[in-house]
């Protein structure tokens, strides 16, 4: 696999993230009829990232290299704002980290200045309600599993 400029994901997965990542991946592949041992079909599905999953618009986002972690948090909120705004117009999005393996190619081909680095890609388009892949929804954790509620009136 090509080298990324930075690690988007942890180098070593741990629980509960490992189980949730696997459940999402196997759930998606299962929806598409791809078995756990069918590596060719898995790789073919992964390669669809680089076609922006046939969306008519593919976006590549970059950020100034000298900005710190807080700016990356702001950037995440900016990306989410794009995703929420798209829904208002009947569009769907898919943020994509897969492009990071080609950061150097993207940098050159898109003439992104060296003072910036690639954050992610994103597919944007009208959803295809007949596409099997769009029938998959990952399981969501109930908020009680990851939120701590504090009553400020109690000491």
Describe the model.
- There is one protein chain.
- The protein has 155 residues and is of the alpha+beta class.
- The chain is built from 4 helices and 3 strands, in the order H-H-E-H-E-H-E.
- The protein has a 3-stranded antiparallel β-sheet with strand order 1-3-2, sandwiched between helices.
- The protein is globular and about 60 Å long.
Describe the structure concisely for a colleague.
The chain has about 160 residues and is of the alpha+beta class. It has helices at about 15-30, 40-45, 70-90, 105-110, and strands spanning about 55-65, 90-95, 115-125.
List the main descriptive attributes of the protein structure presented here.
4 helices; NADH Oxidase; 155 residues; single chain; alpha+beta
What's the helix and strand layout?
Layout: H1 17-31, H2 39-47, E1 57-64, H3 69-88, E2 92-96, H4 103-109, E3 116-125
Antiparallel strand pairs: 1-3, 2-3
- Would you give the CATH topology of the domain at 50-136? NADH Oxidase
CATH architecture of the domain at 50-136: 3-Layer(aba) Sandwich
The CATH homologous superfamily of the domain at 50-136: NADH Oxidase
Helix content: 25-40%
The count of strands amounts to 3
CATH class of the domain at 50-136: Alpha Beta
Structural class: alpha+beta
Give the terminus-to-terminus CA distance: 53 Å
Strand content: 5-15%
Tell me the overall shape. Answer: globular
Instruction: Evaluate the radius of gyration.
Output: 18 Å
Q: Which regions are unreliable across 5 or more consecutive residues at pLDDT < 50?
A: none
- Note the total helix count: 4
Order of helices and strands: HHEHEHE
Largest sheet: 3 strands, antiparallel
Provide the spatial order of strands within the biggest beta sheet. Answer: 1-3-2
């Amino acid at each position: 696999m090509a080298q990324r400029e930075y690690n988007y994901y942890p180098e070593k997965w741990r629980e509960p993230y490992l189980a949730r990542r696997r459940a999402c991946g196997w759930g998606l592949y299962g929806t598409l009829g791809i078995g756990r041992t069918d590596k060719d079909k898995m790789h073919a599905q992964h390669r669809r990232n680089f076609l922006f999953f046939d969306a008519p618009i593919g976006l590549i986002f970059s950020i100034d290299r000298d900005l710190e972690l807080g700016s990356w948090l702001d950037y995440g909120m900016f990306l989410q704002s794009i995703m929420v705004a798209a829904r208002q117009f009947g569009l769907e999005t898919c943020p994509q980290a897969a492009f990071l393996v080609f950061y150097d190619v993207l940098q050159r081909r898109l003439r992104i200045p060296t003072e910036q680095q690639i954050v992610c890609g994103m597919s944007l388009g009208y959803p295809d309600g007949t596409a099997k892949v769009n029938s998959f929804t990952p399981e969501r954790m109930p908020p009680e599993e990851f939120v701590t509620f504090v009553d400020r009136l109690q000491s």
